[in-house]
C-alpha cells in the first residue's frame, strides 16, 4: 500500500475569524504559512511582534519602569522605518499605514521617560 495523503480543508481568513470553535495548532497559530504570500507572512509576524511589544510597553508604563524603555523604544522604532515597498505591500490603503504609525507613536509616547 502506498503512503496515505491527509486531506486539509482550506478556509478563508473570514471563515477562520468567524469560527468560535476553531482550535489553532501551536506551531503556526492556525495559519498555514505556505498559503499566505511572503508579504502577508511578514505583516503577520510584524503585527504579532507589535502586539507583544504593546503588552511590554503597558507593563513598563504601569510600573513606571524606565530601565527597559530605551530598548523598547529602539525596537518600536523598527516599526516606524518601513520602506515604501513594504508599506505598500502591507497597507494597500494609506489610512491603514497611518493607523499603524499612530499605534507605534502612541506606544512610544507611553514609555516612561519619553515625555
Summarize it.
The chain has 115 residues and is an all-alpha fold. 57% of the residues lie in helices and 0% in strands. The protein has helices at residues 13-18, 38-63, 69-77, 84-90, 94-110.
Give a written overview of the molecule.
With 115 residues, the chain is mainly α. It is built from five helices and no strands. Helix 2 runs parallel beside helix 5 (94-110). The longest helix is centred in the middle third of the chain and has 26 residues, at 38-63. The chain is globular, with a radius of gyration of 18 Å. The N and C termini lie far apart (69 Å).
* Terminal Cα span: 69 Å
Main sheet, how many strands, which sense, barrel?
none
Class by helix and strand content? mainly alpha
**Share in β-strands:** under 5%
Q: Which assembly state applies to the chains in this document? A: single chain
**In angstroms, what is the radius of gyration?**
18 Å
Order of helices and strands: HHHHH
Taking all residues together, what is the mean pLDDT? Answer: 77
Supply the number of helical segments: 5
Low-confidence stretches: 1-8
Q: Tally of extended strands?
A: 0
Shape: globular
Give the proportion of residues in helices. 55-70%
Amino acid at each position: 500500500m502506498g503512503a496515505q495523503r491527509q486531506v486539509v480543508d482550506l478556509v478563508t481568513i473570514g471563515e477562520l475569524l468567524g469560527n468560535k470553535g476553531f482550535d489553532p495548532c501551536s506551531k503556526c497559530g492556525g495559519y498555514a504559512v505556505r498559503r499566505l504570500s511572503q508579504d502577508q507572512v511578514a505583516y503577520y509576524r510584524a503585527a504579532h511582534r507589535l502586539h507583544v511589544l504593546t503588552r511590554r510597553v503597558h507593563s513598563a508604563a504601569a510600573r513606571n519602569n524606565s530601565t527597559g524603555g530605551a530598548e523598547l523604544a529602539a525596537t518600536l522604532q523598527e516599526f516606524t522605518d518601513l520602506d515604501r515597498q513594504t508599506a505598500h505591500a502591507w497597507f494597500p490603503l494609506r489610512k491603514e499605514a497611518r493607523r499603524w504609525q499612530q499605534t507605534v507613536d502612541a506606544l512610544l509616547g507611553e514609555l516612561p521617560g519619553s515625555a
